[in-house]
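TA notes, week 10

Several of you asked for a full example with nothing omitted. So below is the full record: structure tokens for the whole chain, then the designed sequence directly under it. When grading your own attempts, check the secondary structure regions first.
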């Protein structure tokens, strides 16, 4: 049975993972309409992963005797100045999510909830990968520069298809 404090912080994470889902959808739609199918594909796949993260939290809260609450989500931005700016925002957002997962770890230790502490380790590891894949993309972007967006878009298209079999 989850304590109230753990249930609250897990529900906060339902909102944050859900917002990540719609944020990346908004970004994907922006990229698609700007003629970047590769970037859009990467972001749609990323959005799917965020939806899965949200569902994991919902299932866990309900399984442990809590009640997952489905929140309303604020509207994500519609416009992005450039592809570079967009991926800088993705990285900032992922760093925020990492901090948020770490706060759950801290709360579990305070509450002596070693079960949730163990369960949430999957997200601790996942965040390392999430941040590192976005940092790789930003490195690539810095190398190719704004003028070679066509090449970059083709490149990132391949990136996601390689990543897809592992989900
Ligand atoms: Fe679910 Fe990208 O963090």
């Amino acid at each position: 049975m989850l304590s109230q404090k753990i249930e609250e912080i897990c529900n906060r994470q339902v909102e944050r993972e859900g917002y990540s889902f719609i944020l990346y959808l908004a970004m994907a739609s922006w990229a698609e309409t700007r003629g970047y199918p590769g970037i859009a594909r990467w972001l749609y796949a990323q959005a799917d992963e965020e939806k899965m993260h949200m569902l994991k939290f919902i299932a866990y809260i309900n399984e442990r005797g809590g009640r997952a609450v489905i929140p309303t989500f604020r509207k994500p931005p519609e416009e992005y100045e450039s592809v570079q700016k967009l991926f800088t925002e993705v990285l900032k957002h992922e760093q925020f999510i990492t901090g948020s997962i770490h706060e759950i770890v801290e709360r579990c230790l305070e509450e002596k909830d070693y079960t949730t502490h163990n369960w949430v380790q999957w997200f601790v590891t996942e965040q390392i990968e999430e941040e590192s894949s976005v940092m790789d993309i930003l490195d690539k972007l810095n190398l190719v520069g704004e003028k070679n967006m066509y090449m970059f878009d083709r490149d990132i298209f391949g990136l996601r298809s390689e990543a897809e079999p592992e989900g």
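The chain has six helices and no strands. Use that as a sanity check on your answer.
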